[in-house]
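Q: My labmate handed me this sequence with no annotations at all. I'd like to see what the chain might look like in three dimensions before we decide whether it's worth expressing. Could you predict it?
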Amino acid sequence: MKVAASTVPGVAVHGLGTPEFEAGLAEVLGRAPRELLKAALPYSVIVENQADRTIAFLGVRFDLLGRKAKQFSVVHYADSLRNPEKGDFLPGTRRFVCAEPEYTALVMRGDVAPQTRGRMNLDNLRRMIETWASLDCVAFSDGKFGGPDSQGAFDRLAREREAELAFAAEVLTRMSNSSDGIEGFLYKAVEDPEDRTRRMISRKMLEALKTGGTAEVAARASAWRCRIPLWR
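A: Here is what I predict for the chain of 232 residues:
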């Protein structure tokens, strides 16, 4: 697999066969045997945080060339923007990322073996003629965002943040008038096929309604924690 150099200052990407990859793999695996990941290593990278801030959002892109010149691409994201102060991608640490996300999750969870689907997907990767990896985007704990951002994550995250704030405000406005219809409103929102953000928040609000009634819904909406704002 070919690995493109990072375009974000303070973040490096290392591929198999480099000393940095081997050092990073030893760090993320700890005492776990290398054999657990051996089959996935040709399709994996080590991302190193060389900056002085925690990385709170990470996107790694994999471009694949299959038979008959058919091209595929995917960006795998890791997101701790709601609680950047609790993020574990600290300065000086490394992160293992595989084109098959089950192997990334395996390392994060500390499991001993990948699930069957992960192994099957890895077989598909072996059929690829060429594979490239690159750093797609990064956001630090202060909201600083960088990278090519091929899938428009910066704009998407901004839209979702505004939608969350608007929905929480709408809940509070409705409840200030009358809390009688809030349950029906939330059930309608949780079934909205067009708006994933409304579905996500309304599920949380319904959980609050079941555990603490309308007072808990109001408290949850008032203290709703969005992802931090990003800037370039």
